[in-house]
Amino acid sequence: MGPNLFVNYGEAVAAILFCIGFTNLLLQTNLIKKIIGLNIMDSAIYLFLAEKGYIAGRAAPIVTNGVTSAEAYINPIPSGLVLTGIVVSVSVSALMLSLTIRLYVRYHTLNLDEIAAQLKKEGK
Amino acid sequence: MYLILLPILFPILAGFCLLAYRKDPGRKLLTITTGICLVITGALVVVALMGTKQGLTLFHLTKKLPIYFNIDKISVIFSLLTVIVFLCAGFFSFVYMKHEQKEKRYYGYYLMAFGVLNALCFAGNLITFYLFFELLTLSSFPLVLHTGSKEAVMAGLKYLFYSLCGAYASLFGIYFLYHNCETLTFTAGGVLQISPASREGSFFLLIAFVMILGFGVKAGMFPMHAWLPTAHPAAPAPASAVLSAVIVKAGVLALIRVIYFIFGTGFLQGSWVQTAWLTLTLVTIFMGSMLAYREPVLKKRLAYSTVSQLYYILFGLAVMNEEAFTGSLLHVLAHGFIKSTLFLTAGAIIYTTGKTRVDELRGIGKKMPFTMWCYTIVSLGLIGIPPTGGFVSKWYLAMGGLTGDIGIFRYLGAAVLLVSALLTAGYLLPLTIQGFFPGADYDDTACRKQEPARLMTIPILCLTILSVLVGLFPNIITNYLTDFVSTLL
Amino acid sequence: MDFICNFPFFSILLSLFSGTICSILPGKAAKIVNRVVIITVGILSGILLVYLLDSGESFVYWMGHFPAPWGNEIRAGVLEAGMALFFCIIMYLSMAGGAHKLFDEVEESKHNLYYILINLLLSSLLALVYTNDMFTAYVFVEINTISACGLIMIRQVGRTIEAAVRYMIMSLLGSGLLLFGLCIMYDLTGHLLMSNIKESVSLLIQNGEYQIPLIVSIALMCVGLCIKSALFPFHAWLPDAYGYSTVSSAAILSSLVSKGYIFLLIKIIYRVIGFDIFNSTRIIDVLFVFGLMGMIFGSLSAIKEGDIRRMIAFSSVAQIGYIYMGFGMGTQAGMVASVFHILSHAATKSLLFIAAIGLTEVSGGSRKFIDLTGAGYRNKWAGVAFTAGSLSMVGVPLFSGFISKLLFAQAAVQVEGKMLAALIVLGISTVLNAIYFMKTVIRIYTAAGDTPYPCITFKDMKVHAVVLILFVILNVLLGVSSQPIVNMIEQGLAMFA
Amino acid sequence: MIICVILIPLLAGILVPLLPFRKRCHKEIFLEGAVILNSILVWYLLLHHSESTFLLAHFTGDLNISFRVDGMSMVFAGLVSGLWPLATLYAFEYMTKEDHENTFFLFYTITYGVTLGIAFAANLLTMYFFYELLTLVTVPLVMHTLTREAILASRKYLYYSLGGAAFAFIGLIMIIVYGTTTDFILGGVLDPLKIGDRTNVLLLIYVMAFMGFGVKAAVCPFNSWLPQAGVAPTPVTALLHAVAVVKSGAFAIIRLTYYSFGTDFLQGTWAQTTVMIVVMFTIVYGCSRALKETHIKRRLAYSTISNLSYILFGAVIMTPLGLTGAITHLAFHAVMKISSFFCAGAIMHQTDKRYVHELNGMGYKMPWVFGIFTISSLALMGVPGLAGFISKWNLAGAAVDSKNPLAYAGIACLLISALLTAIYMLSIVVRAFFPGRDFDDGPIQNVHDPNWKMLLPLMVFTVFIILFGVHSQPIVDFFYDVATGVY
Amino acid sequence: MSKKKSTENYQKTFAFHFFSWLHGEKDPYLGNVEMQPQKEYETDPEMVLRHEKEHDAIMDKVYDTQHNVQLRLFHSLYEITSILFCLFLMALLLVTISYLPATGVAEKPVNNEVAARYIENGLEETGAINIVAGMILDYRAFDTLGESHVLFVATITVLILLRLDKNKKGEINPLTKDMNPNDRIYEPKNDAILRLVASFLVPIIIIFGIYIILNGHLGPGGGFSGGAVIGAGLILYLNAFGFEKTERFFTEKTYKWICFFSLSFYCLAKSYSFFTGANHLHSIIPNGTPGAILSGGLILPLNIAVGLVVACTMYAFYAMFRKGGF
Asked: What distance lies between CA D53 and its chain's CA centroid?
């Protein structure tokens, strides 16, 4: 166990959230809950990223009144990545939701195993 | 110098033409042609024996393996025996085969067997010998299964496969011999240079024993004797006569050639092979005569007696000294003539009365006095009563056995010879007694004289005379052999 | 910085832009645009390959005004250009092969959407091949995943949607792990650019700090990519996804999509972590073992499979097992063998898929094994092509399968510990391959009785037959003249680091 | 020159279905002409061969497809080109009764070219390539009758040979990696410094490669496909399963042992003992199974299994003499077995009797066929004066010469199997010629010998058997030169 | 008085065999060589089909979870193992995090010269005050280009799945027939409260959204966030006033063309800047004075384009989910 567990408490929380999301996505049978798990996982990663960029006692990277020295601001790259990452999780959730709608309309259930059983009965 | 080839090729070609001839030429013509062929072959054999001086190489199988024919004293004796027996059995079969169909096939194979046997006697080296040994099996087995009934075919097959098994065992030995002696031609005193003590030698002792077993199968040695009792009753009488008189002797000739001309007695003297061989011979002698004693069917009884008598000869060979050797050669001749007469008489009995079992033949002496008289004289010979041949050979054998340096077997051998002589009497004489003295309640009015045809009685008569002659003047043969035998041992 | 260096940038932008254009065009025009784009990209990467082969070393291309660690960057080497060219060829042939079936599988109005997905898939593959920046790679991995999922479910049949859902779940897991590993790597090294990460990683290794997080991040990235490229334990989604999707998408998915991720893994191994450092970690043996198991169990479940396309899908699980076995050997030769197998498997697998469709078409559309009897006589070209494909999979000489088996075996021999295991499993899996492929070949060539199904001659499906012949020629070409390709791969890998 | 010898049969085969033949005899003349032309070319090539290697295609690194005429290929190619024209002649007659002949002759002639390919292969890779091709080309032949058993038999044959080829492939790899070159050089190509301490692994690989090629040479655990392939028409079973396919397996093993791994590397090692034990077991197994089999062709197939292991036994003794014995048996057994298979085929063709117990009394109805069958069975048994004896003699001579106690046991196996061969061959002959007393030949009244097209090949083979038996010296000397590398 | 055996089991004794062999009756070949004909190997096709059906029946019985104990056992086992796997993953991550450099501390490897340059000369190179916006739209523009295409692909897939369009003959694709064709049935009929609030709130939301887009390079925000706000506004408007009203200004055609133009503009602009950057040509786009609206080179137009795309996408998603059409 390394020294910084309690110092990087933010990242620890992010890791725990990530695992919770991961388990949900893997084990939940209900599709909606899976998508929720997905979102939890993604946001955990972005939290982790944000924590990376944070430097105590520094301002957001918007140049205020001409000060351009590096020590004034926090590291901008993680926040840039987060911004891009969010769009990815939005689009993926949209896709998953539309798939769920189509399945629900067709098989009137959200349980993946039941869908598989009905498919086998259909046999097509 | 091609004289030696004639007695071999002529009968084989004649037999082959007979077989290949499509139409059925009618019984009369068939018997005449076969008779002429037999006589010509006999003459050719005699001429060949007189004329040839040195061996003839026909062709080379592989570089060091010629097909080589050569005549020496032993082949003379065996070829003489073959000629005589084949002629007599041939003439006998002309009449006997009336009630069997397909004579053409029988005579064809008969002639081929005759040719192959001549070749066997004249073989000069082990490979030629082995070649004709196999051909003999192949050409003689149709004789056995000639009748075509289920048991006959089975007996034929059994005979074929047993002798093939023996042949292959001997082939195993030949492979090793080929590699360790520079030539396989028969030279008196043996070709093998290896001393029995060395590591190589112990292996070759084993090979010798395997070869003895291999060739012994043909002679009906104890563990492999099962084919004889089934083959003989199934075969027609002349065929079984030839079979037991001559073809079985081929096994004996093989053993002589291998032991005395390839391995050499020096190699095998006093080794465990000799002891094993002796035990086997004695066991077979005793077992053969015991089985014959309890056997009701006449032909089977004679077959068992062949087994035991053969092992008199092999006992003589196993002892490996001069008297025993001459005794065994004498016994070859004597037994040949005696056994063929016995089978021909049995054939005559079956031909006339159709009965095969001994207890059915009460009062046969009245019905067929001539055949029975020949039967009695010859069986006396076999038992070993002085005037006939059997006595002289048994005498030499016993003398050889006693003087040979074979440890305890000396006494054991003599004892077994004596006991089995008694047993031979036990299984041969009841027929004569039953025949001539059927006892009170036998009404001899119904029976009237039924002598078999003239053509059958003459061969039986000649063979009986010959067996008696062998007994009376043995030393013609013995001094013919003495100087040759000394070179062997 | 002559003009040719712009070609990788042109090809990526062209395919991206063509995606947007197709959204407004009707189906037919979109198809033409798609074909034109694929051909031009193919030509561009061909010329680039020639240029790079004689220039002998890879070049870097700034995406924007600023040098590498700040702006994005594309790096084009011989291997990248070769792969791009190969991807275009396979994609063009698969599209042409599956075109005639498109009409009864996809709604009329949604054809242009289909072509958009194909274009964007091509662009993401090109970007994956060329990019030199980890986060760009992640973005284009996402594009790849979503467009692949689109391709799977475009047929909108119950089964395809369910397969798409399973596919999405598994690949999202994969990309989640990949991103997490990426972030940890970024945190340790401070760079997103592959070459810079490499320097800082080797620095870290020397003075031995942050060992555990480094290994964990490498492990996470590897597991993420393995899940996405359907290595053995994580292959549950593959048979449904490839088995039921449309013809050309199945061919493209099986040969190109999973190969894109594997190519990214190769870049990570060579450029991000460094080949020998990667060898020192125990991850290699894990990959090796999973590869071996994949080879065996993939083929075993293929034997049990009743439906011909799912059987081919399972066989691609086994082939991916081959590739990971190549990685697992940890030698240069193993890597060369894997890259060659990527090419040969792509060529053979798409050939098999398109031939399979030809056969099912002719036996009343049903995919069950028993109905396929005698299909070889009814549709001669598909029969011959399928036989050629299965012979190549089994590894008969003169086909590309044989050469890749040869390279794998030669590589396996050098590795001390793993030699026997690799060789024996190679032998066993060849036999298993032989069993289920030859079973099908014999099945299609046993004369069925009087079946109602029509028999198709060359005239009425000209394009399909031509595509099959081209695929077979490509396969044989790979099989016979494999020496130049192997040299190219070696040169590319040397240039890669 | 070599390549056109291989290509002509391929072309001829492909042309058969394409060319429009009005009458059947045109097709026959075309095919027979092509095959005879090719054989003459092959013999011309063999008589004054040039040492040059002909390179066809170049694969990766030093792997290439190239052909060369050396001692071993002369033997195998000579044998194949000698027998093929006769077999094709026979096949014409036989196929009158079967349907869709064109595909049959297509694959039949292609196999000729492929077998020549194997014979002339200059390196292990080319041989492996043609070896796989042979499997693929012969599967349709086995499947020719398209009944259910034929399909199952062909499938089993395919799985076995492909499995075998997979393991032989590993042997190929070893040679590529550890050998100096993949070409065939008498005495082996392995160079010691590369091998270093890994001899045991190499031996294990050799045994695996032996078993791999052994599948085609019907070594014990993998030979159940051969009897089942008896379902195919007789020209196929006769030519392929007595001469081309199984012999190419044995040929491959000889190449592997003598020309790739090299005998001095394998001599006296545990690999040699294991392989010899397997071979000896197959010899006895083949014969004992044949004894129980009542279907004629399956019985001959089992006898092929044991005879093939004679060849392997010769090869495995790993001395020049052993190789001579192996080659002699390879040549002689081909002639003997093909004549017995053709006799069986003739019997089936005339009377379509398949089982031994239905042959009662046919000896006199078909004297020529059964006469030749008797001679070939006598030869197989090893009666001196016929070809079988000479090859057994050489094999046993080599075994004795090699002073290896296991080889002595091998000789015992040879003889046991000779005895068993005698039993199961002669029981057929006896049944044919001596049907027994109460046999009426009513049902087989109209049985007669087949026409000259079938009898001619049979007679030629018989003449060869007797000729080899009686005057085998020049041939055996030639084989000895081949074995000691003079050619 | 020896116990006399019956003939059958006497036959089986060893003595009988020995003596029959001794007498030569026993024939070793009788049974073996001349056996009766073997049964021919016959299987007929319907037997194969029957076998297939049985196989399927068995498979069905095996795989239904209610009756099959092993299957249930397997399922519970599966859950336990996967939970264990996730716990293991969590522990692994926590351990790694414990070894990571402490957050909030300045001298971490993360803040190296790369971050420093973005901050120091980010302003004069990109002209954007908001360094993150500058970084996204200029330094690492390629990522963002990919980003917008991710969004575009997602919309395409949603369109594929949910859009109900009529083929030439007018009827809907049979597969999507059971989707309820028209959401108007459930539409709240002119819900007075919603209409009133919407009429007040929607303009404010849209103005605010436009502000965020325009000030992307000056303060926090940018194309993505601004677009989302405008999208939300539009959705609120749709909910309040129903589809007819929105169809007046926002139909599928407009959506299609807006997306096309903004994306293609984005692509062309960025490819121009990439091309000029890679070949070291001077790009003619001025950076403008920092702080002013028009500063920051291409960032403003790009923000506007991205904003439009995101807005339309948001609205399209909602429309698709609701009605499967515009």
From this structure: 26
D189 in Cβ contact with D265 (< 8 Å): no
CA–CA separation, D164 and C431 (whole Å): 9
Residues of A in contact with C172 (CB under 8 A): 25, 38, 41, 92
Three-state DSSP string of chain D: CHHHHHHHHHHHHHHHHHCCCCCHHHHHHHHHHHHHHHHHHHHHHHHCCCCCCEEEEECCCCCEEEECCCHHHHHHHHHHHHHHHHHHHHHHHHHCCCCCHHHHHHHHHHHHHHHHHHHHECEHHHHHHHHHHHHHHHHHHHCCCCCHHHHHHHHHHHHHHHHHHHHHHHHHHHHHHHECCCECCCCCCECHHHHCCCHHHHHHHHHHHHHHHHHHCCCHHHCCHHHHHHHCCHHHHHHHHHHHHHHHHHHHHHHHHHHHHCHHHHCCCHHHHHHHHHHHHHHHHHHHHHHHCCEHHHHHHHHHHHHHHHHHHHHHHCCHHHHHHHHHHHHHHHHHHHHHHHHHHHHHHHHCCCEHHHCCCHHHHCHHHHHHHHHHHHHHHCCCCCHHHHHHHHHHHHHHHCCCHHHHHHHHHHHHHHHHHHHHHHHHHHHHHCCCCCCCCCCCCCCCCCCHHHHHHHHHHHHHHHHHHHCCHHHHHHHHHHHCCCC
Q: Chains meeting A at 3+ CB pairs closer than 8 A? A: C, E
Closest Cα in chain E, distance from residue A57 (Å): 8
> What gap in Å lies between CA B455 and CA B451, rounded to an integer?
11
Domain hosting A13: range is 3-122
Q: Give the amino acid at D4.
A: C
For residue E146, give how far its alpha carbon lies from the nearest alpha carbon of chain A (Å): 9
Q: How close are the terminal C-alpha atoms of chain E, in Å?
A: 113
Task: Say which DSSP state C364 is in.
Answer: T
Q: How far, CA to CA in Å, does B184 sit from each of B54, B69, B123?
A: 17, 12, 11
Query: Among residues C2, C14, C82, C16, which one has the least CA distance to residue C49?
Result: C82
**D261-303 pLDDT, tens per residue?**
888 888 888 888 999 999 999 999 999 888 888 888 888 989 9
Output the six-digit token pair for D40: 């003459």
- Cα(A117)–Cα(E102) distance, integer angstroms: 50
Chain C residues near residue D167 by CB distance under 8 angstroms: 427
Which two tokens mark C358? 């030809």
Encode pLDDT of A37-62 as tens digits.
Answer: 999 999 999 999 888 888 888 888 78
Cβ-based contacts of E100 with chain C (< 8 Å): 184, 187-188, 210, 213
CA distances from residue D167 to C327, D126, D163 in whole angstroms, order as listed: 23, 16, 7
Domain boundaries, chain D: 269-487
Provide DSSP, C13-60. Answer: HHHHHHHHHHHHS-HHHHHHHHHHHHHHHHHHHHHHHHHHHHH-S-EE
Round to whole Å and give the CA distance between B64 and B72: 22
Query: Which of the residues in chain A have pLDDT under 70?
Result: 123-124
User: ipTM of the predicted structure?
Assistant: 0.76
Task: Give me Rg for the CA atoms of chain C.
Answer: 22
Model pTM greater than 0.90?
no
Chain E contact for D294 (CB, 8 A cutoff): yes
Could you give the C-alpha distances from B186 to B260, B382, D384, in angstroms and in order? 9, 32, 18
Can you give the pLDDT at residue E179?
A: 62
Q: How far is residue D142's CA from residue D240's CA, in Å, rounded to a whole number?
A: 10
Residues 6+ apart with CB under 8 A from E40: none
Q: Which residue of E has its CA nearest to A70?
A: E116
CA pair distance B381, B375, nearest whole angstrom: 10
Q: Do B61 and D389 touch (CB under 8 A)?
A: yes
